[in-house]
């Protein structure tokens, strides 16, 4: 996925005079309603959270006018019912082009220290939003670089109101920068901490998790299985940042998913952070995503090449995946860059079920159904309601 | 391969001395020892009070050396704290002893006055002054005193 460098400095705007007829508008600071056990997320100082920006960002997130042919929105690949991830191995862009990686879940993305599978440098949601909007390898939303979509938004009565409310100090608030700021603010509100696991640990409900799930948790955190070493902490990911610890060292991992022949042991173009660092030892290294809500968004891994949780556990139990034939044939456990912690373990059928039950206990049904996180255009009765 | 049979809850802690002396301690046994509290800041900024006893109080039950007795070869002794899941962390007797390292290492069994959840209890090791949590052995099952046996004397 490549993005023209110049795009990062675009601050395109449309010449619309947007003013309030009812006097000065003030912003309302967003008050975090965090689940018990959750620390305060990091918020960039240049984009403080306000209710108005969150509301605007939510409208933009679900608006198909943010694609070249008005066929897709952010929500097309980050589907609420799938914990804001996709259920396809790789997503399809607005023009029908297939992506190369699985769309990650946006739930708890406010805590994500690295935002994508394999770009260590992309750490700010405001910057990341530009990739699906304008990226051309592959085309996702496929927006034109002339920012014509901003003109469309600027003529919409709902957006006129929302942009002015969100950026009351701006003479011309309908800008690309304000679009990405608002989307980032909305994405930071996608916080999930209402799973049976949370009820068990933080609400003191002893019956919230089943006995097999509790046993699965012990296995998950055991030295032998050691799943927690990469999927630890309150967000079950070692790529986590909080307001208290905003600059941790983020690790990327080669799990032995592939070991194809040749100098690059992972199938191109999905070669992990090597794509950006060009260091041989970084081939096949990807982010360890949060396991919260993982049962809601199969398939798994960066390329969606593992269909089920059971299959994922088998991969780790084997210490890497063996592919017997075909272009990706190879013994993953022998991958020279494999994380030494992926050493394999004995996995009985009973343990496998217990671990799957535990992983399922991390699902928060409310985040997948909460109307306040859903498509606002479904309830906004407005003449310029975007096409469905 | 360790196993936890559902419903077969651990109740006691086993402490094994250098002479293989073995003592089993229940929560009611630990309640008779001097109580220690530690307040820990959680990730969400809230605080939790853990209650338990000092590790040295438990080691005294199996005659581990302390104070003036900790000299020479006695300092080669280690205390291995092991969890039900196989996770083990060693401490030297010198690092724990008040006359040497004076590390505050607690065996806790209450969290804000309640029993620990099964995933970390019934006993957990807590080193409140550690910056990282990796020595906080959960589900502590055994505390064993062992002695290092250097294979060769230094030349």
Can you give a write-up of this model?
The complex is a heterodimer of chains A (388) and B (155). Chain A is mostly helical. Chain A is built from 13 helices and 4 strands. Chain A has helices at residues 51-61, 74-77, 125-128, 130-134, 148-154, 157-166, 176-188, 196-202, 211-220, 274-277, 309-317, 349-360, 365-369; strands spanning 252-253, 286-287, 322-323, 330-331. In chain A, strands 1-2 form a two-stranded antiparallel ribbon. A two-stranded antiparallel ribbon of chain A has the order 3-4. In chain A, strand 3 and strand 4 form a beta hairpin. The radius of gyration of chain A is 22 Å and the shape is globular. The model of chain A is unreliable at 1-23 and 381-385 (pLDDT under 50). Chain B has 155 residues and is mainly beta. Chain B is 8% helix and 34% strand. Chain B has 3 helices and 10 strands, in the order E-E-H-E-E-H-E-E-H-E-E-E-E. In chain B, the strands form 2 sheets. Chain B has a 5-stranded mixed beta sheet with strand order 2-1-10-5-6. In chain B, a hairpin with a 2-residue loop joins strand 7 (106-111) and strand 8 (114-115). Chain B is globular, with a radius of gyration of 16 Å. Mean pLDDT of chain B is 87; it is low at 1-8. At the A-B interface, helix 9 of A face loops of B.
Outline of this structure?
The complex is a heterodimer of chains A (388) and B (155). Helix content of chain A is 26%, strand content 2%.
Entry keywords:
heterodimer; A: 388 residues; mainly alpha; two-stranded antiparallel sheet; 26% helix; B: 155 residues; 5-stranded mixed sheet; 5-stranded antiparallel sheet; 8% helix; disordered N terminus
């Amino acid at each position: 996925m490549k993005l023209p460098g110049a795009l990062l400095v675009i601050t395109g705007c449309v010449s619309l005079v947007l003013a309030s007829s009812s006097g000065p508008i003030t912003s309302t600071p967003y008050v975090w309603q965090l689940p018990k056990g959750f620390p305060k997320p990091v918020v960039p100082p240049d984009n403080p959270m306000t209710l108005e920006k969150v509301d605007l960002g939510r409208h933009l997130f679900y608006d198909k006018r943010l694609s070249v042919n008005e066929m897709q929105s952010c929500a097309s690949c980050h589907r609420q019912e799938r914990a804001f991830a996709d259920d396809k191995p790789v997503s399809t862009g607005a023009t029908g082009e297939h992506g190369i990686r699985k769309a990650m879940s946006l739930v708890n993305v406010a805590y994500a220290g690295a935002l994508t599978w394999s770009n260590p440098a992309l750490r700010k949601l405001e910057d990341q939003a530009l990739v699906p909007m304008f990226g051309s390898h592959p085309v996702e939303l496929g927006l034109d670089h002339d920012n014509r979509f901003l003109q469309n938004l600027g003529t919409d009565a709902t957006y006129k109101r929302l942009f002015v409310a969100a950026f009351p100090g701006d003479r011309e608030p309908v800008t690309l920068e304000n679009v990405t700021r608002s989307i980032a603010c909305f994405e930071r509100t996608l916080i999930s901490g209402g799973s049976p696991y949370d009820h068990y640990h933080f609400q003191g409900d002893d019956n919230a998790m089943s006995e097999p799930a509790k046993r699965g948790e012990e296995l998950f955190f055991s030295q032998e299985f050691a799943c927690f070493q990469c999927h630890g902490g309150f967000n079950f990911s070692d790529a986590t940042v909080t307001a208290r610890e905003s600059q941790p060292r983020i690790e990327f991992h080669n799990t032995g998913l592939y070991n194809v022949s040749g100098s690059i042991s992972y199938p191109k173009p999905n070669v992990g952070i090597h794509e950006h660092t060009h260091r041989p030892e970084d081939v096949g290294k990807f982010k360890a995503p949060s396991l919260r809500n993982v049962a809601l968004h199969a398939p798994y891994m960066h390329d969606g090449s593992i269909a089920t949780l059971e299959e994922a556990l088998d991969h780790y139990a084997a210490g890497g995946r063996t592919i017997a034939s075909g272009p990706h044939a190879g013994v993953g456990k022998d991958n020279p860059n494999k994380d030494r912690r992926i050493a394999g373990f004995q996995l009985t059928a009973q343990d496998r079920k217990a671990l799957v039950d535990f992983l399922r206990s991390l699902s928060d049904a409310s985040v997948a159904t909460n109307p306040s996180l859903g498509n606002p255009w479904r309830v906004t009765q407005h003449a310029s309601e975007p096409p469905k | 391969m360790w196993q936890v049979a559902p419903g077969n809850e651990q109740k006691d802690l086993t402490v094994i001395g250098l002479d293989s002396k073995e003592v089993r301690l229940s929560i009611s046994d630990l309640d008779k020892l001097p109580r220690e509290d530690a307040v820990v800041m959680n990730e969400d900024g809230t605080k939790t009070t853990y209650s338990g006893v000092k590790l040295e109080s438990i080691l005294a039950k199996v005659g581990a050396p302390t104070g003036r007795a900790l000299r020479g070869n006695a300092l080669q002794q280690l205390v291995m704290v092991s969890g039900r899941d196989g996770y083990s962390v060693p401490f030297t007797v010198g690092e724990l002893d008040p006359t040497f390292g004076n590390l505050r290492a607690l065996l806790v069994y209450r969290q804000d006055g309640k029993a620990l959840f099964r995933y970390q209890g019934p006993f957990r090791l807590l080193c409140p002054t550690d910056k990282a949590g990796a020595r906080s052995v959960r589900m502590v099952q055994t505390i064993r005193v062992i002695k290092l046996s250097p294979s060769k004397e230094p030349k």
